[in-house]
Structure formats: structure tokens, C-alpha cells
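BUG: 3D viewer hangs when loading the predicted structure for this chain

Environment: internal workstation, default settings.
Expected: structure renders.
Actual: progress bar stalls at 90%.

Input used:
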Amino acid sequence: TLVLHHLTTLQKQELLAVISRHGGTKFAPILRLATSDADNGIRVQAASALARIDDEFLPREQELSAAILENPTDAQQLLKLGRLYDEYSGAGVLGADREHESREKALAAYGDYLMLSSGDVDARVAVSRLLIADGRFHDAIRHLESWVREDGSSAALLLLYMEALFRLRRFNDVRQVAAKHQRTLAQAGDVSIEAREAVKLWMGATA
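C-alpha cells produced before the viewer hung:
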């Protein structure tokens, strides 16, 4: 998003036009930044693009909700609805109350989906991330602890479990998880450099 500061007005207009046509929620941070631009035209264009995200959400929500009402065990529609609420809650276009409400709806849809497809690690990651974002660290631990005990093959889930433990100041448990699953955590290719370094510190703390 810092790149926006270095663009000319024309380049900003072109970028915002592309985002408005194709971007969706993932580019909402750029749009929010652009609403504070010195140029009034850029601010208006960015605000319009953010409003479009809001406008496009409702018909999609209604479509998916109707499909699920017709077939409550349609796992793929439940997953799509969960992702829709998830993306919407994190887009930065909502106030605090509506953001929380959208997270709750995402959790409900993901929960129903996982009842049908319990092995979907990505959905379990999403649930854990949302619980932690909402400050529900005990719930995140309850959601993950049986999986960590019985499986423990996903570095992403292990890191979220460790984060929830850390937020509750259960430092000894964090060390134990790092030690027990050090191979999974060390060999994961999708772990950020920052997370990898943090895990190394916790591994070292077990020595």
C-alpha cells in the first residue's frame, strides 16, 4: 500500500479503476488508504470502489443462503458462504459491530462445513484465525487441541495453536508444542520468516 504514495494522480486513477473492476475485498486496504489521499477526486473514486464491495456482498450472500436453505448439507455452498463472510469481515469496509457479526457468521458457516468435511485443514485454519482475531483464545485452543494431539501435520494450525497459548501466557505449553512438532514446523514451506524465527526461539527455550 505504500506504493500508492509514489504514484501520480493519473496512475492512482488507473489503479483504482482496475481494482474497482476486478479487485474485490483483497484490495480493500489500498482503497481505504486512497480515501485519505490529498486529491479529492482520488478520495471519491476510492470511496465509490469501497461502496461497490458493500453493494456486491448482499446479492452474493442471499444467493448462497438460499442455496443452503434448499440443501443444508451442501458442503461446498457452506464453504463458499463461510469464505464470503470471512473476506467481508476482513475487508475493512465495516464498522466494529458489523465486522464482529460477519466473523460470527463466518464461524457458523465454517462450523457447519467442518461437520461435513472435518479433514479440511484450510477451513480449520480459517476458524482458528477468526477466533484469535476475536480474542477468543480459549475457544481457539478447544477447536485445535484434539487435532494437535491426534494429527499435528499442519504447520499453519500448529502456529495458530501456539499463538492462542501464547496470548493466554501459557508459555510452557508453547515450548512443549514447539519441541514435539519441531520437524513439522522446521520443514514447512509456507511459514513466514518471522514465524520461523519465533519457533526457533521457542525450540531453543526447551533446551
